UniProtKB/TrEMBL annotation:
It comes from Devosia salina. A motif (Histidine triad motif) lies at residues 100-104. Residues 8-115 form the HIT domain. It comes from the Bacteria. This is HIT family protein.
Length: 116
């Protein structure tokens, strides 16, 4: 599968579309998910152009994973969540809807169903 540079996250990275930006550096943009599955649902979007994990450059993955951990820790501290899910989907049959690599940090609250 090829990378489509007109995908919505590529357009957000280029500043063509708005987002609720909570952090940006040379490696990635961190933003709030527009349709959160729980309070504090956060996305880490690497700046390197790849469709998903399957075609990502391992060097780019090495660069972004420490940030994923930092965001997970920050989201847990900020939300008071009881736990977190780290999610990442590859291709439409697996649930991917935006075809630019990204990681979901989804806070979990005891007794609260996702999407509630
Ligand atoms: P996935 O491709 O991993 O299934 O999920 C894409 C995620 O991006 C979804 O959780 C969806 O709510 C989120 N999303 C889709 N469009 C936008 C957008 O324009 N802005 C933001 N912040 N999130 C988006």
């Amino acid at each position: 599968m090829t990378y489509d540079s007109a995908n919505i996250f590529a357009r957000i990275l280029k500043g063509e579309l708005p987002c609720h930006n909570v952090h940006e550096d040379d490696i990635a943009l961190v933003m709030m998910d527009i349709f959160p599955q729980s309070r504090g649902h956060t996305l880490i979007v690497p700046k390197a152009a790849s469709r998903n994990l399957l075609d990502a450059d391992p060097a780019d993955l090495s660069a972004v994973m420490p940030l994923v951990q930092r965001v997970a820790r920050a989201v847990k501290a900020a939300t008071g969540a009881d736990g977190l899910r780290l999610m990442q989907f590859n291709e439409a049959p697996a649930g991917q809807t935006v075809f630019h690599l990204h990681f979901h940090i989804i806070p979990i609250y005891e007794g609260v169903a996702l999407g509630a």
